[in-house]
Write a sequence for this structure.
């Protein structure tokens, strides 16, 4: 079963809050927490992260749009 956007958003926020403001996490951590077959979830994870008001995507510490960023990103609290 595919998780809803609300479940994905909740998982992203939970991981971000656990890490705190000074730390980031890989979006795959959220996908792995939601499904054993996590790879197909990655585009949805990025989509939900892009619209989440409390989560920010970064590359090399700089904010990026998770929908247009190429390569690996990290997520953190805004």
């Amino acid at each position: 079963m595919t998780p809803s956007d609300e479940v994905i958003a909740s998982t992203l926020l939970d991981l971000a809050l656990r890490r705190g403001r000074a730390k980031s996490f890989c979006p795959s951590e959220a996908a792995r927490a939601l499904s054993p077959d996590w790879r197909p979830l990655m585009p949805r994870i990025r989509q939900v992260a892009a619209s989440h008001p409390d989560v920010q995507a970064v590359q090399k510490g700089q904010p990026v749009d998770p929908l247009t960023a190429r390569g690996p990103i990290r997520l953190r609290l805004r």
Observations:
- The chain has one domain: 5-77.
- Helices lie at 5-19, 27-34, 42-51.
- The domain at 5-77 is CATH 1.10.10.10 (Arc Repressor Mutant, subunit A).
